[in-house]
Design a protein that fits this description.
The complex is a heterodimer of chains A (245) and B (258). Helices cover 68% and strands 4% of the residues of chain A. Chain A contains 7 helices and 2 strands, in the order ββααααααα. The chains are: A mainly alpha (245), B alpha+beta (258). At the A-B interface, strand 2, helix 1, helix 2, helix 3 and helix 4 of A face helix 1 of B.
């Protein structure tokens, strides 16, 4: 029983290798892009829309709404990054019901890669929002003494992101495997269902935390938040964020 | 080691590619389509609202029109009814007048016919009675009857009321004492003498009598001064009979009218 998919190497040439993680990632990517392409090449702007378009619209508008609620900002620039995080992790975990498939999020390399993306995206969005000086100045607030702690905080939360996702997904697979050995019937099935749920929750948590980090980096002014709050309607609930797992 | 850094790099690249692909194939089109649909629905709603407003205005104006038509109709109906009522009344009145007129005419015509009939009848009756009486009297009439008539006449003369006698006397004096005696048959000289003596007894000796005959009297006698007449004849009876008959017919008419 392998702990990580990374160890299943299919092809290697020097440092360059193709293992199961990358393969399954490509699979998920291909699936996502294919479905998106198939659905969005015939989009209807009428009142009557296809089921698939309806599904994707619900998904996209749901994500936009979540980003708006959490970040208190217009979701436009954040949607591709955060939405892709959520969709990729969610689908990668969901496909675990397919026999023979292993979620790429089972690999620490994948989760580390996603966490590094968040680590890099946070300053990018911050700088884009308030300029290089504006962004960097918040490392020095309230005093210069806080600089090491800010940097440490960035690094640790990135590590936490990566390990949390990896740990949850991997533990699910492990528990499944162990229970299969101990109680072969029924119970593993229940645990599998639980794993699916956990996978979705993790996808949600990862995306929400990424949003929170980016939002904190952009440091939106109070006035703008209030403006967005007013625009986003009364059903907007700020305290809806889940606690970190 | 759980982390293979090449795989990490590869996954970062994979993820960035996925972000770009999904942005191209998912978020962009979907968001655009949703925005387009929202706009479309908003415009359709606006159009529908406008149409509804137009329809409401149209409805209001139509309602107004219908109401005015209804009012007009009601008015026309009322007017027509009133006119019809008036025409009916007029026609009724006219008809009543005509009926009254016809009835009156009819009544008049009936009355006239009755009168004509009665007059005719009376005339005929009187003629018949005259004819019959005349024939009977002609057949029966002789001096004896004449004698008897004369006696009755003289009896009446004698029993004349004093006022009448007085009047006759005065009339005689006005006529210069001349009195004509008219009879149906020629009187014998004895009879003439008897009458002369009777009259002279009553009115004095100065009275001169002149005797004439007249077939109209049928049977009887009459005494005439210039302004007075004393008579007893069957002609008088017949005249009375004629009067009586007329009176009887009138009474019959009255009872019928009642």
């Amino acid at each position: 029983m392998e702990i990580s998919l990374d160890s299943v190497v299919l092809w290697r040439w020097g440092p360059v290798l193709l293992n199961a993680t990358i393969l399954y990632t490509w699979l998920v990517m291909a699936l996502l892009v294919l479905v998106s392409w198939l659905v969005t090449r015939r989009l209807s702007t009428d009142a009557k829309i296809s089921k698939w378009q309806n599904l994707l619209e619900v998904l996209v508008s749901g994500m936009r709404e979540q980003i708006r609620q959490i970040s208190q900002e217009e979701p436009g620039p954040y949607l591709p990054f955060i939405g892709t995080l959520f969709i990729f992790i969610s689908v990668a975990n969901l496909l675990a019901v397919v026999p023979g498939y292993h979620p790429p999020t089972d690999s620490l390399s994948t989760t580390a890669a996603l966490a590094l993306c968040v680590l890099v995206a946070v300053p990018i969005y911050g700088i884009a929002q308030q300029g290089l000086g504006g962004y960097l100045s918040h490392y020095l607030k309230p005093t210069v003494l806080m600089l090491p702690f800010h940097i440490l905080s960035e690094l640790t939360r990135t590590l936490a992101l990566a390990v949390r996702l990896f740990g949850n997904v991997m533990s699910g697979a492990m528990i499944g495997a162990i229970l299969l050995a101990v109680v072969p019937l029924f119970f593993p099935l229940v645990m599998q269902l639980l794993e699916l749920l956990i996978g979705q929750v993790q996808a949600f948590i990862f995306a929400v935390l990424a949003t929170v980090y980016i939002a904190s980096a952009t440091q939106a002014h109070e006035e703008r938040r209030e403006a967005v709050l007013k625009n986003s309607g009364p059903e907007n609930r700020v305290g809806d964020q889940p606690k970190e797992d | 080691m759980l982390i293979n850094w090449f795989v990490v790099a590869a996954q970062i690249v994979n993820f960035l590619i996925l972000v770009l692909l999904l942005k191209r194939f998912l978020y962009g089109p979907i968001v655009k389509a949703m925005a387009a649909r929202e706009e479309k629905i908003a415009s359709q709603l606006a159009a529908a609202r406008q149409k509804r407003e137009e329809a409401e205005q149209e409805e209001a104006s139509l309602r107004q029109k219908v109401r005015s038509i209804e009012d007009q109709r009601q008015e026309m109906l009322t007017r027509a009814e009133e006119e019809a009522q008036a025409a009916k009344q007029k026609l009724f009145a006219q008809a009543r007048e005509e009926v009254a007129l016809v009835r009156q005419k009819w009544a008049e015509s009936v009355k006239w016919q009755k009168e004509a009939f009665l007059a005719n009848l009376k005339q005929r009756l009187v003629q018949e009675i005259f004819t019959i009486s005349r024939r009977v009297l002609q057949e029966l009439g002789n001096l004896e009857v004449e004698q008897r008539l004369l006696e009755v006449f003289l009896e009446r003369l004698r029993q004349l009321a004093p006022a009448e006698r007085q009047a006759l006397q005065e009339s005689l004096q006005e006529a210069g004492g001349e009195l004509s005696v008219n009879t149906a048959f020629a009187l014998t000289p004895e009879t003439q003498e008897k009458i002369t003596s009777e009259v002279q007894d009553l009115f004095g000796p100065g009275v001169a009598l002149r005797f004439t005959t007249s077939a109209e009297l049928l049977a009887g006698i009459e005494m005439l001064t210039s302004s007075r007449k004393i008579a007893w004849s069957l002609g008088n009876y017949l005249d009375n009979l004629e009067e009586d008959l007329s009176q009887a017919f009138a009474e019959i008419d009255k009872s019928e009218a009642a």
